[in-house]
Design brief:
mainly alpha
Length: about 230
């Protein structure tokens, strides 16, 4: 695919930026992640609240976001399927040979922590909905819309298009994405680079959202089938 953008970003001029619209959902998400990981007993409540609050924030700020194009959504499906094999396969391989990448003790195990069947099913539903619908929209808007373009054009991210071909932005976003995934960082980097390649080729944020959602949905299926809760 030809690249209609210039080889270097245009000179940015100061202007109004909608930083809060992109940062607030991600900050909320990470804040509740910290609560759930620090106090495992609060994990299901933190996840449910996080999902609802982030969804509300996305709805409130939607007019501030770049319009999402859904072209090449089908390629997003393919990349998402490949992505779950990469994520699970690579992490299992790392856990097998390196102690550092093995999950620690005391993680949240839903069947052991939620004794009421109805509440357990409800948690599974909110966990799947959050991971496959809310998180992909929130993360792709932040990582590959806002942060990517902010690195390419620091003074005004809106002066470069979504999917602008910038190697530094691609690497920095992949590194930041890996950083927030803790000791899953080595698995996270190839996945992030794969999504970056999808964005680079298609210029479609919608395709990246689809890929992210498909990977997370299939990962949920893997977790529920194998009961390997470390992947959640």
């Amino acid at each position: 695919m030809s690249d209609p953008s210039p080889t270097t970003p245009p000179i940015a001029s100061p202007g109004r930026r909608d930083d809060v619209a992109y940062i607030a959902p991600m900050a909320t998400f990470l804040g509740f992640n910290y609560i759930g990981s620090t106090w495992p007993a609060l994990y299901p409540f933190a996840y449910a609240i996080k999902t609802v609050v982030v969804a509300i924030l996305l709805w409130m700020f939607w007019k501030h976001y770049t319009r999402v194009r859904w072209n090449f959504w089908w390629l997003g499906v393919i990349v998402g399927i490949v992505g779950v094999f990469q994520w699970v396969g690579m992490q299992l391989l790392l856990q097998k040979y390196f102690e550092f990448f093995r999950p620690g003790e005391g993680g949240f195990v839903p069947p052991d922590s939620i004794n009421t069947p109805g509440l357990l099913i409800g948690f599974y539903v909110i966990r799947i909905v959050g991971a496959s619908l809310v998180v992909p929209v929130m993360e792709e808007l932040f990582w590959r819309d806002y942060l990517w373009r902010s690195i390419a054009a620091p003074n005004n991210f809106k002066l470069v298009p979504v999917g602008y071909r910038d190697g530094m932005a691609m690497l920095c976003v992949a590194g930041a994405f890996a950083f927030v995934h803790g000791n899953w960082w080595l698995t996270s980097i190839p996945w992030a680079l794969m999504i970056a390649g999808l964005l680079w080729y298609t210029r479609s944020l919608g395709a990246c959202i689809v890929a992210h959602g498909v990977t997370n949905l299939l990962l949920a299926g893997y977790v529920l089938y194998t009961r390997d809760w470390s992947f959640w």
